[in-house]
Write a structure and sequence with these properties.
The complex is a heterodimer of chains A (118) and B (114).
Chain A: E1 5-7, E2 10-13, E3 19-24, E4 31-38, E5 42-50, E6 53-57, E7 64-68, E8 74-78, E9 87-94, E10 108-109, E11 113-117
Parallel strand pairs in A: 2-11
Antiparallel strand pairs in A: 1-3, 3-8, 4-5, 4-9, 5-6, 7-8, 9-10, 9-11
Chain B: E1 3-7, E2 10-14, E3 19-26, E4 30-38, E5 45-51, E6 56-59, E7 62-67, E8 72-77, E9 86-96, E10 99-104, E11 108-113
Parallel strand pairs in B: 2-11
Antiparallel strand pairs in B: 1-3, 3-8, 4-5, 4-9, 6-7, 7-8, 9-10, 9-11
The chains are: A mainly beta (118), B mainly beta (114).
């Protein structure tokens, strides 16, 4: 069974631009969560989508948004990029909704998209 | 405030030696605790998950312990191998208001040298 795939793997943008990242979950998984990982902050939760609906959200500004399609693929968009948005963006797929599942639903992470904002 | 603190921040050991990584948490209400291994340039991979009633869980050379009273967990690696070089992340799940929230530690970076 194929793992979680993320595209693109690397991205360079300049301040003020916007960016869209894509995540394809493991076949059959309906939950996709997005995380930002930086050396100083570690992994921080952005949001989770399950059955095309956002189920949980972290403490990020409205510039960060996402959506999920009927085939469970998910996209994350960051508008008006700032230098501090440079990070590794990870998505994780799970069979069931992590937000309501008590955390027992194992998440499988993709390799991430390395975003650099100049 | 829900927090997960890991120590040490980084660790260097020789191949074949054992090591123990620590995770202290102030998360309430506690649901479960998971250890992840993250190789450089890759996403984290789950090693173990422990609930309130579990004290020890093993996965090959990895053994996790949990003391729910003191809110401490440890990950013990036996007979380390070069492939153990990675970051190890402790994640605690808290349940509040019908929603599950994951609190991530900053990780311990382990380097195994020959």
């Amino acid at each position: 069974k194929a793992g979680v795939t993320q595209t693109p793997r690397y991205l360079i943008k300049t301040r003020g631009q916007q960016v869209t990242l894509s995540c394809s979950p493991i076949s059959g998984h309906r939950s996709v969560s997005w995380y930002q990982q930086t050396p100083g902050q570690g992994l921080q939760f952005l949001f989770e989508y399950f059955s095309e609906t956002q189920r949980n959200k972290g403490n990020f500004p409205g510039r960060f948004s996402g959506r999920q399609f009927s085939n469970s693929r998910s996209e994350m968009n960051v508008s008006t990029l700032e230098l501090g948005d440079s990070a590794l963006y990870l998505c994780a797929s799970s069979l069931r909704n992590v937000a309501s599942g008590g955390g027992y639903n194992e998440q499988f992470f993709g390799p991430g998209t390395r975003l650099t904002v100049l | 405030k829900n927090q997960v603190e890991q120590s040490p921040q980084s660790l260097i050991i020789l191949e074949g030696k054992n090591c123990t990584l620590q995770c202290n948490y102030t998360v309430s209400p506690f649901s479960n605790l998971r250890w992840y291994k993250q190789d450089t340039g890759r996403g984290p991979v789950s090693l173990t998950i422990m609930t309130f009633s579990e004290n020890t869980k093993s996965n090959g050379r990895y053994t996790a312990t949990l003391d729910a009273d003191t809110k401490q967990s440890s990950l013990h690696i036996t007979a380390s191998q070069l492939s153990d070089s990675a970051s190890y992340i402790c994640v605690v799940s808290a349940r509040s208001g019908g929603y599950n929230k994951l609190i991530f530690g900053a990780g311990t970076r382990l380097a195994v040298h020959p």
